[in-house]
């Protein structure tokens, strides 16, 4: 992997990551963009009912919304005048979001004051484009290209974890209009939050309770061991990773991918493990796309932890989920789910696991 650093017209950073032998040459970004603001334009406020932080980012109302394919802001811009990517071609590219929920993490950034109920929306929001091909998907990438994406996730995780003002790094992909995607180009996002997110906080709390009640044992390792022993919900495995439908799945289609040894985040994985992750990730996404006549909308969420901040009980894993409950029906998060966070599923995890097992290539 080689990395080429460049800048966009408003001062944001853009990084080009290339496969061996590919020579990517950025051109000047000549779009007439206003200079990037010198301070965060959003804020975070604490919900006193739950203790959760909420980002308030009104500037995102103006973000690009479902443009025609010939006006896609993520496609290559050979002359530097038509998109966010000033180059004739690229393999994988990362740049700061033009409409960020959080921004300006780095030197001088102050951590959130836990005694206050509001603060500036300091953090970092990046866009990662998986390919210059507008009509492809992650599943359709070659192994080497998909491994490049995994390597970029790893590199960005390491970089963002070192930024002042960032407490947690979250890599994710939203795929499909049913999920709410407004740009159809294959891409994901990387968030550097200034706080620990509610779901991470909840999982770490459960892991700490489990460890205290079980002689220091790890909750996630125990979950993995039970799934591997039971086998009913395991849909794929290799030397380094296991993919399974969780025992208490919340979503109609839900798969978790765990490394077979305890690591905290992507930076802990060895080269063979990164290959194993790439293989099983492509395997799962392939099963998703073979499930129905049209591609499955999904969210892919990489859960990462940092032991330097007291998160030793965390266990890196990926959670993939879809709101599609049949070929032509969606699962809407209505009253019980949205108001009370009490999920009700329409298919048993075992039934979904059996279906995914049948979809092996």
From TrEMBL:
User: Catalytic positions?
Assistant: 187 (tele-ump-histidine intermediate)
Binding residues annotated for Zn(2+), in chain numbering: 72, 75, 134, 185
Q: Please give the GO cellular component terms listed in this UniProt entry.
A: cytoplasm
Q: State the EC number(s).
A: 2.7.7.12
Is-annotated flag, keyword Lipid metabolism?
Answer: no
So what does this thing catalyse?
alpha-D-galactose 1-phosphate + UDP-alpha-D-glucose = alpha-D-glucose 1-phosphate + UDP-alpha-D-galactose
Q: Please provide the Gene Ontology terms (biological process) for this protein.
A: galactose catabolic process via UDP-galactose, Leloir pathway
The record's cofactor note says: Binds 1 zinc ion per subunit.
Q: Which cofactor does it need?
A: Zn(2+)
Any one GO molecular-function label of the UniProt entry: UDP-glucose:hexose-1-phosphate uridylyltransferase activity
Residue limits of the Galactose-1-phosphate uridyl transferase C-terminal domain?
213-360
Which terms are listed as keywords in the entry?
Carbohydrate metabolism, Galactose metabolism, Metal-binding, Nucleotidyltransferase, Transferase, Zinc
Which protein family is it in?
Answer: Belongs to the galactose-1-phosphate uridylyltransferase type 1 family.
Task: Name it.
Answer: Galactose-1-phosphate uridylyltransferase
The source organism is Rhodococcoides kyotonense
């Amino acid at each position: 992997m080689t990395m080429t650093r460049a800048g966009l017209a408003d001062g944001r950073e853009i990084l080009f990551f290339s496969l061996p032998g590919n020579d990517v040459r950025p051109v000047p970004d000549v779009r007439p963009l206003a200079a990037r603001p010198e301070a965060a334009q959003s804020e975070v406020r604490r919900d006193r009912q739950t203790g959760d932080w909420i980002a308030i980012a009104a500037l995102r109302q103006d973000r690009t919304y479902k443009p025609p394919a010939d006006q896609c802001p993520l496609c290559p811009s050979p002359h530097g005048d038509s998109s966010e990517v000033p180059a004739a071609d690229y393999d994988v590219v990362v740049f700061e979001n033009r409409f960020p929920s959080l921004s300006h993490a780095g030197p001088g950034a102050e951590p959130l004051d836990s005694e206050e109920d509001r603060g500036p929306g300091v953090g970092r929001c990046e866009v990662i484009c998986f390919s210059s091909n507008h009509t492809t998907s992650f599943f359709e990438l070659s192994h080497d290209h998909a491994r490049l994406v995994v390597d970029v996730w790893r590199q960005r995780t390491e970089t963002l974890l070192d930024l002042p003002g960032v407490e947690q790094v979250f890599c994710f992909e939203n795929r499909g209009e049913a999920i709410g995607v407004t740009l159809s180009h294959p891409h994901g996002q990387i968030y550097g939050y200034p706080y620990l997110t509610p779901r991470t906080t909840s999982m770490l709390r459960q892991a700490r309770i489990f460890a205290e009640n079980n002689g220091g044992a790890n909750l996630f390792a125990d979950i993995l061991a039970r799934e591997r022993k039971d086998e009913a919900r395991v849909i794929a495995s290799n030397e380094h990773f296991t993919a399974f439908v969780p025992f208490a799945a919340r979503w109609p289609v839900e798969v978790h991918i765990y490394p077979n040894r305890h690591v905290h985040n992507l930076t802990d994985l060895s080269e063979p493990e990164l290959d194993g992750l790439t293989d099983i990730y492509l395997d799962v996404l392939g099963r998703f796309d073979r499930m129905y006549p049209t591609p499955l909308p999904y969210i892919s969420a990489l859960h990462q932890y940092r032991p330097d901040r007291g998160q030793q009980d965390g266990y890196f894993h990926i959670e993939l989920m879809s709101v599609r409950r049949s070929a032509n029906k969606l699962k809407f998060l209505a009253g019980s789910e949205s108001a009370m966070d009490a999920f009700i599923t329409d298919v048993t995890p075992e039934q979904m696991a059996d279906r995914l097992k049948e979809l092996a290539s």
